[in-house]
Structures are given as C-alpha cells and as structure tokens.
Amino acid sequence: FNYCTKLTDITVPSATTEIEAYAFRYCSSLESIKLENVRTIGPFVFQNCSSLESIYAPHITIIPSFAFTSCTVLSKIEFSKDITSVGAYAFFACDLLEDFEITPSLKSLGIGVFSASGIESVVIEYGFTVIPERTFESCKKLSSVTLPSNIEEISSSAFTDCVLIKDVGELPGL
What we know:
about 0% helix, mainly beta, single chain, 3-stranded parallel β-sheet
C-alpha cells in the first residue's frame, strides 16, 4: 500500500500479527488504523501519513525507527504499556502529538525520537536512565519536564531549541 494516496481506511484482519516496513508509507489520506492483534511493525511503516490522526495497537512493544515520522496530525496513540524500545526519529515532526508516557518498561530510545513534535510535557518514570541526543530537539511546545532520580545521562542536544522549558527540577546524580 506504499504511496496509496487515496486510501482513507483499512481493516487489518485479526489474523495479522506483523506489518512490514514501508507498508503504509505516504498513504496521505489514511486517517486512523486499528491494529488489534498486530505485535510487530517495521520501520517507516506509517511515515508521511499526513492525515493519520490516531493509532490503536495494544500489543506493540517495539516502535521501530521512522515508524510515524511526519504524521503531522497524529494526536492519539494507544500502544502496550510494556513498550521496551522506540527507534530513531519514530515520532519526528508529529506536530499534534502532545504526550507520550515513558514507563519503566522502556529500556531504549533512539536519537531524535520526538524531535520537532508537538510534545508539551514529559514525565520519565524511574528506571529510564539515558536521554539520547536530539530526543526532544526543537519541541517548540515542550514546557514541562519531569526526570527520575536515577537519570544518569542527558545528551547535550537532547533538549536543544526547546524554548518554553523553564524548570526541570532537581537533577540528582548529574
């Protein structure tokens, strides 16, 4: 379905457990998708789906690189609470994505995961220790950041050009 610009809706069969890389890339009219039983998605799977507003994927635990890059109206995402990894630039330029919960199950973030997105506040729960480079770079709406007491490393470019941040609280151990 790569580049199917007129595709607005799709029903993923319940037997489908994997969607490969690039499957819906540049489906610019696709508005929402439910991945009821899908457990694995590939890189670039929804890249540039500029009309995609919501995604429901309760069994996804790994979000690959560039999966939702430039989904400019994506505002509602529902994934498993047990996400373990989010790949590089997964939510880059998702202008309307305002929040994302970084839970203790998350062990790795790629670079630039939320760069230039609409993220407004970030709460990183205890257990996550490293914020990679460009993670929140150019998040013009980001104003609130809560970090866990066990944070070990914040890349020098992790919050570059986040002009609304006023306070990140205490940074123990840094």
